[in-house]
Amino acid sequence: MSDPIGMPPLQFAQTNGIRMGFYEAGPATDRPPMILCHGWPELAFSWRHQIKALADAGIRVIAPDQRGYGATDRPEPVEAYDLEHLTADLVGLLDHLAIDKAIFVGHDWGGFVVWQMPLRHPDRVAGVVGINTPHLPRAPADPIAIMRKRFGDMMYIVQFQDPAREPDRIFGSRVEQTFDAFMRKPLPRNDPPSTEPPAGGIAASPSLNLAFPQMIAAYDPAQDKRRPILSDDEKQVFVETFSHTGFTGGINWYRNMTRNWLRSEELDHTVRVPSLMIMAENDAVLPPSAADGMEKLVPDLEKHLVRDSGHWTQQEQPEEVSAKLIEWRRRRFG
């Protein structure tokens, strides 16, 4: 794989039994640093705009390719991708860099991970920022069962439970199609946002087509009226990387949702550190309404709405996201 454009040099850390690739910028003396955690199907490269902006503002910033992605190891067992492993990976990264505490920033699946950090490793967390992904109470039942009942068997997360890994093959055989289809700004939606409680973290309208593998298999970019958010060179970074790694590592995170739910019963879900929730106005899967009531679980919470942004917020509206991260970090941590 070639070096991602606009990124600092790739470094490696031995952490929690794997080798993790990560990128670092900004002054090493800055405390607490900000750890940027990507979602699916993404990479540390998704934070390229924030890495530069934060570093230019004098903030130490670290962005890993998380377990199963990019330059980081991809263990074979599905159970190796549960939240216990994913959070412990980040603790090991802090240990490798001799960092006591950090502010953890997460988008999409990375958001679920960073909201777990103060629950599982409170002594290593100075603050948390969720981008699009809210912190929710523990689901009342298995989240896969809830999603299957609400969205049906074709909903992508339900499909991801397939032990034959058919979704992995669909995405893996159509890598450029996948990023061509996903990485675009949404068109204005006519359907109202869902008022139902989030199902396993997903707050989409039940009428939304969430059969992503089939959408990718049938995708024709010539018929797509949405505007791409990546340049050709940026898209090529994702295409080249996922052509090498495949999609199974990231999809395995979803295959642990039942396991995560079963193993979280004894956790106190209250987040007791300064927190920021950045919401995207036009995210159809994680709409701003998904964050309603978060204050009950996150007492020290601020919210910020990014208008005219779909799901890929830090890449769609990078200047606003970066500016808010810098402002909040300086105001709350000096």
CATH superfamily: Alpha/Beta hydrolase fold, catalytic domain
Please give the share of residues in helix.
25-40%
Average pLDDT level? 95
Give the helix/strand class: alpha/beta
CATH class type: Alpha Beta
State the CATH topology: Rossmann fold
Whole-number tally of structural domains: 1
- Please tell me how large the radius of gyration is: 18 Å
Instruction: State the distance separating the first and last CA atoms.
Output: 38 Å
Low-confidence blocks of residues = none
The string of secondary-structure elements, in order, is: EEEHEHEHEHHHHHHHHEEHH
Secondary structure blueprint with pairings:
Layout: E1 10-15, E2 18-25, E3 34-37, H1 48-56, E4 61-64, H2 83-96, E5 102-107, H3 109-120, E6 125-131, H4 143-151, H5 156-159, H6 166-172, H7 175-182, H8 212-217, H9 232-245, H10 248-254, H11 257-262, E7 275-280, E8 301-306, H12 313-316, H13 318-333
Parallel strand pairs: 3-4, 3-5, 5-6, 6-7, 7-8
Antiparallel strand pairs: 1-2, 2-4
